[in-house]
Specification:
Distance between the termini: 42 Å
Helix content: 25-40%
Low-confidence stretches: none
Number of strands: 18
Mean pLDDT: 95
Order of helices and strands: EHEHEHEHEHEEHEHHEHEHEEEEEEHEE
Length: 363
């Protein structure tokens, strides 16, 4: 029998996933979405891992979302239905989507401008396929999406009248809503934002267009959006792994399944130690750093590319040279993007190593 390897023996810094917590998170979200009579299409940009996507689909998800063409191709190669949630503006990319459809992939895309309709139509003609296209709606963030007015109606009509495109519904995602602090404030923000999309959906349906699908939602609003009848598909992604950002706004409904394992490499001072996980181990797009798990009284501070300092303030246990410490990442999605593998652990032992394909920024 092969020797069992402790999760703490992974070479640090290492990206760990606790399988019990991961599977519990997946089951909980799927049960809630199914109970609400909706589809779950989790966002794979949170984990970029075919093995995690497989568990989500096996639990009942309709497929996955992807933020880039490269992610879409990766998830298709693993056999999943994929919705590309980001508009594109290059014939090179619309041709790649059309090529996937020609190969038999179940893919969907979004548009927020008439020129994108033309790009997809031309690519679909060249590939000899028909593409499913959703209208991406701006419900307040002004990141992507067409405003929820007559322009959205006309864009939907343009899609529906294109010979090689099928109107497949609308997409509405509130970035700010997903991270609004406080459940009541988040509920008001999300329902107000989604109401704009619902008005567009109703108008399209009144015109006889296929707008039954309204896809959106997030980990931050999962227990709000599942109660909105018009939303048919949930795109939550971070719930599977979790991070500091979602915990801070009250995301304790899901367990911290992903951690970064680090080693104490210097302990020359009584009030602090240094670990081998710094800027290259954690995404730095949040105003706060990682949080140590199961180590109360320790405060994190950035200390360089390869180093982080733990300030010890009445810590719950001694911290010595060579000790391993697990950290909850500030933001799971871009932290995953820094690694080329996930160490999957069941309890105290490693069960598998899952490869992560480094995804090109040009994807």
């Amino acid at each position: 029998m092969p020797m069992r390897v402790s999760r703490l023996d992974a070479p640090t810094p290492a990206l760990l996933v606790d399988l019990d917590r991961l599977e519990s998170n997946i089951a909980k979200m799927q049960a809630a979405v199914s109970r609400a009579g909706k589809q779950l299409r989790p966002h794979a940009k949170a984990h970029k891992c075919a093995e995690i996507a497989r568990r989500q689909v096996e639990a009942g998800a309709a497929g996955v979302c992807a933020a880039t063409i490269t992610e879409m191709e990766l998830m298709h190669s693993a056999g999943f239905s994929v919705l590309l949630t980001t508009p594109v503006a290059s014939p090179l990319k619309t041709d790649r989507v059309a090529a996937l459809a020609r190969a038999g992939a179940d893919v969907r895309v979004v548009v927020d401008h008439p020129d994108q309709v033309h790009l997809y139509q031309d690519s679909a003609v060249r590939a000899g396929v028909k593409l499913d296209v959703l209208v991406d709606l701006d419900i307040g963030d002004h990141r992507t999406g067409i405003p929820c007015d007559e322009r959205a109606i006309q864009l939907a009509r343009r899609v529906a009248s294109s010979a090689n495109l099928r109107l497949a519904g609308t997409q509405a995602y509130s970035v700010s809503g997903s991270h609004t602090e406080g459940w009541d404030a988040r509920r008001i923000h999300s329902t107000t934002a989604i109401a704009q999309a619902i008005a567009v959906q109703k108008r399209l349906l009144d015109l006889g267009l296929d707008a039954h699908t309204l896809t959106g939602g997030s980990t931050g609003t999962w227990n709000i959006d599942t109660a909105i009848p018009e939303i048919t598909e949930m795109q939550a992604g971070s719930y599977a792994l979790m991070d500091v950002a979602y915990r801070r706004i009250g995301g304790a409904d899901f367990a911290p399944a992903m951690t970064v394992l680090a080693t104490v490499i210097s302990c020359s001072h009584a009030d602090r130690v240094t670990v081998d996980a710094g800027f290259k181990a954690f995404a730095t797009d949040r105003p706060f750093g990682p949080e140590p798990l199961d180590l109360n009284g320790a405060r994190w501070e950035w200390a360089g590319d390869e180093h982080g300092v733990l300030h010890l303030e009445n810590v719950s246990r001694p911290v010595r040279l060579g000790d391993r410490v697990e950290f909850l990442a500030p933001h799971c999605d871009p932290t995953v993007n820094l690694y080329d593998r996930i160490y999957a652990a069941r309890g105290e032992y490693l069960e598998a190593v899952w490869p992560l394909k480094r995804l090109s920024l040009a994807g």
